[in-house]
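Dear Dr. L.,

I hope this message finds you well. Following up on our conversation about the binding site, I have prepared a predicted three-dimensional model of the protein together with zinc ion. For your records, I am including the exact sequence and ligand specification that went into the calculation, followed by the structure tokens. Please feel free to forward this to your student if that is useful.
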Amino acid sequence: MKTTLSFLLISLVTLTVFPFGSSAAGLESYDAIKAKYAGAQKVRILVVPGHDDEFFGTSFNGVREADVNLELAKTIRDYLVHDPNIEVTLARDEQGYNPNFLAYFNENKDLIRKTVASQAAAIKLAMTNGEIIVDSQVPHANAVDQVAQQLYGLNSWTDHENFDLVLHVHFNDYGSRYSDKEGKYSGYSIYVPDQKLLNATTSKYFGDAIGKRLMTTLYKSDQTSEKKEADLYGAIPDFYLIAMGAYKTTQAPRALVEYSYIYEPQLQSPFTLVTAHMMARATASGIQDFLAGKKVSTAKNIEYGWDKTLGVSKVADQDVLMLQYGLSELGFYPAKGLTRASCPFSGIFGTCTKKAVMAFQASRGLSQTGGVGPGTRKALNTIFR
Ligand SMILES: [Zn+2]
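The resulting structure of the complex is given below.
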């Protein structure tokens, strides 16, 4: 769940207005970032686990968004720590917000508020005058003022610290869902700054690179407006999200990923962690692909070994979930003739999984039993272990 701008901010007196595009000269181009990476300079990435202990985002069955966001963000960092040309900073961890951010924010709170207010006033005027025309947008919930201020603070800190890239980590939800009931949408979305905000072009490449990795395993969001606005890889331009630099309040290239809807079965206990790890691994690969300007490795989104025989069962099992992920990445899940709606990532071995296993077996010249015995396990383990 992400939060959009708060109109409370623009009720202040008019202040010195930053001319539009005045900061464009300082924008880091995609070529500059690639050159930095290729030249063995450290590319500095800020990963922002969405929400915090106080405002924890959405939740379902005891799974709190803020906690999964943090787990996922830490795992992305753990994958990227092996890359000598990348330095990852987390905006918060179990101890709370990054102390450097807090110090900066507390010292500059008033200036940030005033700057945002003046930028907002100028942009709103330009919209009223028709100088800025905003295309159709995915609707979002408004942030409470405290949250909005912190997000604008992060935008400001991002530029102050010269981060090269910013990644916001979230899980999705929607307003009219009954809190204890599974919702009707599924899939990931990647928000990137609208073309009228700063660094939209580089951000789009960044979002697409992550999407290319995520989509090999996961599905893109089927929520109506997200589906309408998303590109081939799931990237959606957004004008109003603070994290995207609403009112041109920040300039580092950025993306905000809603990895799935919070109630989807693959995110529920006991699967939360293995799913977050798969998503983190895919994201880390996508970031490296972006920085290298190409697909840099054949690494799969999961690394897993299967040791026991699997077949049709009504009991959810981690081996089956990982099998579904693996078969999806290989292009066999959902099997031909079946849909994503009837084939969720559930960990339950039903018709979808059986048919996908049979297709995999056929592709490997194995006998098509539809169950995972020693021969099929060996073939899977050769690919994923
Ligand atoms: Zn969120």
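In brief: Residues 6-25 have pLDDT under 50 and may be disordered.

With kind regards,
A. P.
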